[in-house]
């Protein structure tokens, strides 16, 4: 029953576990004890995944160490410029959080056919690059060329990870990482640009409203109804949002705001299976 409620289509092994865990949480009316049991079960599944797929766990750990070393090196290099002072410790703390999130959700590294993947994909690496760039945004917010460059790179990674995933096959992990990376990157970029006087208040409000509604719908589906979210952002909407934000940070606020707000108004597409009629 939990599986049918979670999604009408056939589920992978990981999705069946998720459906059962969410169903138990819902039946216990989200009491504190139910949340504690949910977290214990999730952590246990994470440990089991790492023990059953050690190559996947080692790869995730290696990427985490590489990202931390790269951030430390970037901070040292940036501080040679008097106008840049990236938050070294805050950036490392952010990256550690992302790394732990990745390790916690390695069980989602499976294809639509339910086959577990032994390795993270190149598309996952590109998506993680967008996460890695998040703490750089406040540090370069007042730089006339660095901020639009970082936003442009973030937009390029959004396009590239989608292109690579379509060619090599999507995973549940990659799908959710991509959505979270967009949310974290665009929100941080918009707030940083607004504080630097490069993004109008109404453009920031439009983006935050879109993200807030999207998060509310997703959380409502998962935790309120124990169902898989059945919406996905449209690629051309993301192009408008990234492009508009890049133009705003490059001091082209009129055209940039128009594109950004237009991108925020693009409705998501439904991923629910269509029902054939007799």
Describe the protein's topology.
Elements: H1 2-6, H2 13-27, H3 32-52, H4 54-78, H5 88-104, H6 122-133, H7 136-139, H8 146-168, H9 172-195, H10 201-225, E1 231-232, H11 235-249, H12 253-265, E2 269-270
Antiparallel strand pairs: 1-2
Helix pairs in contact: 2-3, 3-4, 4-5, 6-8, 6-9, 8-9, 8-11, 9-10, 9-11, 10-12, 11-12
What does this structure look like?
The chain has 278 residues and is mostly helical. It has a single domain, classed as Four Helix Bundle (Hemerythrin (Met), subunit A), CATH 1.20.120. The protein is 72% helix and 1% strand. It has helices at 2-6, 13-27, 32-52, 54-78, 88-104, 122-133, 136-139, 146-168, 172-195, 201-225, 235-249, 253-265, and strands at 231-232, 269-270. The chain has a two-stranded antiparallel sheet. α6 (122-133) packs parallel to α9 and α9 packs antiparallel against α10. The radius of gyration is 20 Å and the shape is globular.
